[in-house]
């Protein structure tokens, strides 16, 4: 091995995250010949950017090490779950660019889970409890005081089997009985104080219908489902750290394939809430237009806003894998989409706040066409044709009557270049009766035409749109949904909805060059000098709608 190779190998090892180190050690030691991961969402809502990180991690690790990833729906609560969510989850994963090895459901294993529950009863490790939920909660004790054993804890195996089978047969009402593991009511880990394994729910399941009226709890079902699928590395977020010993306990007592759980820090993003409950409340109460509202952190919302799967995968990679909770700046996600779109998106000129610019020395009715690159990153690539006339729109912000120093846009008596076209000079400002500027009368320099005459440099260049050719579009200007960066640390007595941003959406008309409507790239486009915009599904042949994905300005820096 050369010194150069050794240094490279050491650097690669240093750059491994802790999960990669574990996997490489497991493969090198022969513990596993190949790895198997899984992504196990509960189909009770739409996935958000935090789930996207988990998807990228699980599928990414399997791909890197030649393994596979299963998609398994944790559908153990029929009251909250629906096929709508199942379908949306599958669509989101495919959009992110991943394919699962097998599609499974916890409900596929209901019969096996039930048999294992009976096995634990026969081993004296589970019992049927008649206490109410409140009594069970009170009996668990506190962190500093041991729990109290249920008066039903020492039922015989035969009685527990009979009662459990009667629970399955539908003899009892919801909440009348539960099945609990029999472990230790004084255990320092509160989860070990006889946790619930099954509860009664008389509700139709989206896959099994009315076949079952008892459903397994997460802590009981999760490890066993992993074991059935021979998941080698069960990767969860950090809040499941205290659940891992219970995960291992069930697997050990049943003597089944020893899947193992590993935890990483969940994604916390500034100006964002990640709670499914809160997101559902925003949708149900009309604070947003739906799960796919472009202000939502849902994957479908991010997609509708114009984010690309490549940018989300880049974001997940930049965030990395940590063992400690931290808060990621939303600007990092915006930086990632800019990086991706800057390389690939087409450019068009659009004016959001127009003021008319009239060329007094232009021949009436004359139209010239200028060639402009669709993407400056590919100067030899395709171009679009941009019409130029004597009546133009420019952005109101590109003119000032009394500008400050170092203002290089248009001013009275000043010159700017109209991008791709001529240099113009402002000769007169026309105002209405209230003093509002309604027109700028200008002249142009015919010799300044790009590609002809003499090149003359001016400091300012602004964008424009020909009035007779302008297409009217609706621009939806999206901003942060919340005004507070640390949404996970809001003061006591405050509600997260108190921080909803009243300016998170502004809708306005804009005027664009006609080539915009011919764009079929499927990507967000750049409105030159303004930002990136994505064509919304609300668009009609009569009126196109564009959502602002992000601005062009970027103060964020990658270390």
TrEMBL record:
HAMAP family according to UniProt: Gln_tRNA_synth
Gene coding for it: glnS
E.C. numbers: 6.1.1.18
Ranges where the tRNA synthetases class I (E and Q) anti-codon binding domain occurs: 461-536
Protein's name in the database: Glutamine--tRNA ligase
Recorded coiled-coil stretches: none
Domain Glutamyl/glutaminyl-tRNA synthetase class Ib catalytic: 35-342
Short sequence motif named 'HIGH' region, residue ranges: 41-51
Compartments where found: Cytoplasm
UniProt short sequence motif 'KMSKS' region, positions renumbered to this chain: 273-277
Binding of ATP, residues: 42-44, 48-54, 237, 266-267, 274-276
Annotated catalysed reactions: tRNA(Gln) + L-glutamine + ATP = L-glutaminyl-tRNA(Gln) + AMP + diphosphate
This protein's UniProt keywords: Aminoacyl-tRNA synthetase, ATP-binding, Cytoplasm, Ligase, Nucleotide-binding, Protein biosynthesis
Binding site for L-glutamine: 74, 218
Domain of life, source organism: Bacteria
Subunit and partners: Monomer.
SUPFAM superfamilies in the record: Nucleotidylyl transferase, Ribosomal protein L25-like
Alphabetical GO biological process terms: glutaminyl-tRNA aminoacylation; glutamyl-tRNA aminoacylation
Organism: Candidatus Merdivivens pullistercoris
Domain called Glutamyl/glutaminyl-tRNA synthetase class Ib anti-codon binding: residue spans: 345-445
Record-linked CDD domains: GlnRS_core
Family the entry assigns: Belongs to the class-I aminoacyl-tRNA synthetase family.
GO molecular function annotations of the record: ATP binding; glutamine-tRNA ligase activity
GO cellular component: cytosol
């Amino acid at each position: 091995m050369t010194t150069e190779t050794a240094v490279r190998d050491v650097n690669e090892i240093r750059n491994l995250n802790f999960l990669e180190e574990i996997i490489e050690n497991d493969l090198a030691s022969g513990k596993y010949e190949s790895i198997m991961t899984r992504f196990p969402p509960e189909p009770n809502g739409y996935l958000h950017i935090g789930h996207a990180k988990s998807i990228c991690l699980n599928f990414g690790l399997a791909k890197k090490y030649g393994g596979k990833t299963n998609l398994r729906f944790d559908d153990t609560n029929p009251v909250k779950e629906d096929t709508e969510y199942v379908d949306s989850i599958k669509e989101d994963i495919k959009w992110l660019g991943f394919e699962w090895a097998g599609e499974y459901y916890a409900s596929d294993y209901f019969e096996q889970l039930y048999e294992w529950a009976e096995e634990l009863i026969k081993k004296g490790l589970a019992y049927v409890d008649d206490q109410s939920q409140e009594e069970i909660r009170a009996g668990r004790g506190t962190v500093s005081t041991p729990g109290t054993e249920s008066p039903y804890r020492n039922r015989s195996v035969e009685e527990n089997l009979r009662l459990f089978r009667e629970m399955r047969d539908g003899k009892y009402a919801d909440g009348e009985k539960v099945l609990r593991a029999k472990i230790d009511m004084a255990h320092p880990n509160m989860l070990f104080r006889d946790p619930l394994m099954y509860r009664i729910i008389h509700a139709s399941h989206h896959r099994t219908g009315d076949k079952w009226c008892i459903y397994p709890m997460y802590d009981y079902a999760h490890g066993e489902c992993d074991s059935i699928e021979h998941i080698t590395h069960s990767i969860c977020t950090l809040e499941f750290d205290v659940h891992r010993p219970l995960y291992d306990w069930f697997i050990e007592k049943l003597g089944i394939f020893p899947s193992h759980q590993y935890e990483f820090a969940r994604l916390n993003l500034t100006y964002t809430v990640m709670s499914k409950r809160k997101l559902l409340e925003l949708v149900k109460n009309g604070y947003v237009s739906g799960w796919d509202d472009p202000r939502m952190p849902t994957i479908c919302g991010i997609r509708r806003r114009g984010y690309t799967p490549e940018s989300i995968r880049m974001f997940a990679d930049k965030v990395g894998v940590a063992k400690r909770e931290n808060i990621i700046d939303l600007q990092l996600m915006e930086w990632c989409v800019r990086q991706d779109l800057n390389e690939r998106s087409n450019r068009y000129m659009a004016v959001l706040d127009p003021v008319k610019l009239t060329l007094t020395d232009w021949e009436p009715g004359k139209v010239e066409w200028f060639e402009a690159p669709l993407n400056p990153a590919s100067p030899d690539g395709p171009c679009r044709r941009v019409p130029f006339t004597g009546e133009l729109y420019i952005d109101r912000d590109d003119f000032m009557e009394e500008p400050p120093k170092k203002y290089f846009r248009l001013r009275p008596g000043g010159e700017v270049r109209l991008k791709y076209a001529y240099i113009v000079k402002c000769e007169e400002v026309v105002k209405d009766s209230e003093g509002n500027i309604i027109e700028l009368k200008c002249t142009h320099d015919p010799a300044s035409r790009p590609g002809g005459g003499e090149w003359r440099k001016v400091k300012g260049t602004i964008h424009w749109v020909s009035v007779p050719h302008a297409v009217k579009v609706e621009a939806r200007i999206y901003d942060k949904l919340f005004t507070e960066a640390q949404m996970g640390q809001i003061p006591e007595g405050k509600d997260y909805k108190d921080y909803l941003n009243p300016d998170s959406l502004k809708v306005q008309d804009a005027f664009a060059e006609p080539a915009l409507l011919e764009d079929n790239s499927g990507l967000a486009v750049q409105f030159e000098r303004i930002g990136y915009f994505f064509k919304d599904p609300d668009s009609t042949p009569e009126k196109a709608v564009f959502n602002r994905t992000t601005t062009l300005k970027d103060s964020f820096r990658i270390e």
